[in-house]
Amino acid sequence: MTLIEAYTEACRFLSGHGIESAPLDAGLLVAKAAGVSRYRIYTHPEEEMDAPALERLRMDINRRAAGLPMAYLTGVREFMSLEFRVNESVLIPRPETEILVETMLAELERGAMVIDAGTGSGCIAISLAVLRPDVHVLAVDISESALKTAEENAALHGVSERVTLLRSDLLSGIPCDEAFDAVAANLPYIPTGEIERLPASVRHEPILALDGGPDGLSLVRRLLPEAYRCLKPGGCVYLEVGAGQAERVILLAEETGFTKARAIMDLQGIERVVRCTKTLR
Ligand SMILES: C[S@@+](CC[C@H](N)C(=O)[O-])C[C@H]1O[C@@H](n2cnc3c(N)ncnc32)[C@H](O)[C@@H]1O
Questions:
Q1: Total count of domains within the chain
Q2: For the segment 169-202, what is each residue's pLDDT rounded down to a tens digit?
Q3: Fewest C-beta atoms under 10 Å: which of 41, 126, 277, 279?
């Protein structure tokens, strides 16, 4: 079968399974299976695909038709204009999370020591380290397999020396008090009862990265006092939150002792990041 025949068939199959991005996905998957660039399908349409390549394509197309996100099939996702490796042990980095990183990049003091709680692929910690060569990040996650992916990404971007990875249940494994300038966290924030209603593609992502407990805020509620302990006076917390959660998170932050809590909107006008400060004594 030629590249163009494989592409046409893959496209028809994915469309038939309701995949809206079938033309793009089919092109990417044919290119991946054949080990060529996507443009080669158009520049060399008559090139033959061998049997192992067609078998790889058949498997990928079936997994895509079953709803597996493209990022897990291609193994990469762009975040802050950097390429991150992803697999089924980590959440696929989302554009909304770039708001949190952008806010921190604008505010972090020179030489800041930062914690990234629930690092997943490492996208927050590693982008901060790449874009701010003066910053050090301690990135924690409870998932050993997520930490392995973050380790690969840190090496890929040449920041392993400034991104320390640690397995920890939130910040419980961090012994030092008042040592950090900022805590970033995009923790699971979907209420348990809503997980079943999520689109099929999201349900392929690790439950550990999605489930935020009965009201979605179980982890945030636990993190805030731990972050307070770890932060220097004057230090800040930057939390990504779900739509409609910002007001409750601001209240929780104030109850913990944080001040100047405010929400920052994403490009869709949703309050996406809550930022608060541990007041100087
Ligand atoms: C929503 S994902 C975010 C991943 C990444 N920071 C991002 O923005 O794409 C949440 C991450 O928190 C981790 N996590 C869940 N519970 C945790 C806990 N108790 N302690 C530390 N990490 C936890 C999950 O393994 C997952 O990697």
A1: 2
A2: 999 999 888 999 999 999 999 999 999 999 888 8
A3: 279
